[in-house]
Amino acid sequence: MSLIEVFLLALIQGLTEFLPISSSAHLILPSQLLGWIDQGMGFDVAVHVGSLLAVCLYFRKEIGDMVVAWYATLTPNKEDDAALTAEEKLNGRLAWWIVFATIPAGAFGFFGADFIEENLRSALVIAITTIAFGLLLGFADIKAKQNVSLEQFTFKKAMIIGFAQAIAIIPGTSRSGITMTAGLMLGLSRENAARFSFLMSIPAIAMAGGYLTLKLVMGNEVVDWTAMGIGALLSFVSAYACIHYFLILVNKIGMMPFVIYRLVLGGVLLWFVTQ
C-alpha cells in the first residue's frame, strides 16, 4: 500500500465508523472504483483497533460507571440495592442491555461472515443497501416521536436495536446508521440514539477486530507494520473527532445530510455498476 492509500483508508475508517454512512462500504469502494488492491486483513485490524480505542477513550466515564454498576448487579444485596442511586441502577441496566444486545451481531457474524465476504461485498449490493437504509434513516428522523428517555427504555427495545445491529454485517448498511434508525423509531432522541449506538459499538468492534485478528494469525499474510501503525493512529484521531462533533451537531442538523449523502452515493454507484 502506498502512503496515500494508508492515509485515505485510515481516515475513511475513522470518520465513517460512527457516522450513519457505512464504513465497510467506504473501505470497499476504493478497490472497486479506483482499482486499488485490497488493503488486507492486517490493515483492517489496525483501523478497527484505532476506532475502538477512540470510542473507549471518549466514553471512558460512562464505561467506568457502567462497569461498576454492572458488577454491583452480580452480587445482589437488598441493602446495597437500596443505596444505589437512580443513575447507578440505570447504568447497571444499560450494561446488561448492551451485553445481551450484542449477542445477535455476534451470532450473525459467526455464522454469516464468510458467506457475506464471498457473495455480498460488491458495488451493486452496497448501492442498494446504501439507498434503502438511507431512506429508512430519513423516515425515522422525520416521523419518529423521539419522546422516550433512557430511563423509560426497556430490555425489549434494546434487543430490537441489537438485532438491527446484526443486519449491519451486510456491506453498505452501516452499523451506526441502522442502530440509530432503530433507536429513533423506538422513540429515543437523536443524541440518545447516537450515544446508545456508540456504546453498543464497543463490543461489536471488539468482536470484528478479534475475528480479523484470528484470521490474520491463522493465515499467511505478510504484515506491513508501518501501514498498520499509521492506520491505527489516523483512525483513532479521526474517529475521536467524529464522535465529538457528531454528538454536538446531531440535534442541530439532524440525519438528513447523511440521508442525502447516502442517496447520492448510492445513485453514483448504481450508475457505475450499470455501465
Automatic annotation (TrEMBL):
Protein localization = Cell membrane
Q: Which UniProt keywords apply?
A: Antibiotic resistance, Cell membrane, Cell shape, Cell wall biogenesis/degradation, Hydrolase, Membrane, Peptidoglycan synthesis, Transmembrane, Transmembrane helix
Transmembrane segment boundaries: 40-59, 94-116, 122-142, 154-173, 193-214, 226-247, 253-273
Give the top-rank taxon of the lineage listed in the UniProt record for this protein. Bacteria
Q: Which Pfam families match?
A: BacA (PF02673)
Classify the protein's membrane topology as the record does.
Answer: Multi-pass membrane protein
Q: What Enzyme Commission number(s) appear in the record?
A: 3.6.1.27
Which regions form coiled coils? none
What catalytic activity is recorded? Answer: di-trans,octa-cis-undecaprenyl diphosphate + H2O = di-trans,octa-cis-undecaprenyl phosphate + phosphate + H(+)
Q: Where is it chiefly localized?
A: membrane
- What is noted besides the main data? Bacitracin is thought to be involved in the inhibition of peptidoglycan synthesis by sequestering undecaprenyl diphosphate, thereby reducing the pool of lipid carrier available.
State the protein's purpose.
Catalyzes the dephosphorylation of undecaprenyl diphosphate (UPP). Confers resistance to bacitracin.
PANTHER family to which the protein is assigned, alphabetical: UNDECAPRENYL-DIPHOSPHATASE
- NCBIfam families per record: PRK00281.2-4, undec_PP_bacA
State the HAMAP family in the record: Undec_diphosphatase
* Family according to the record: Belongs to the UppP family.
Output this protein's name: Undecaprenyl-diphosphatase
Q: Which organism is it from?
A: Thalassotalea eurytherma
Instruction: Quote the gene name from the UniProt entry.
Output: uppP1
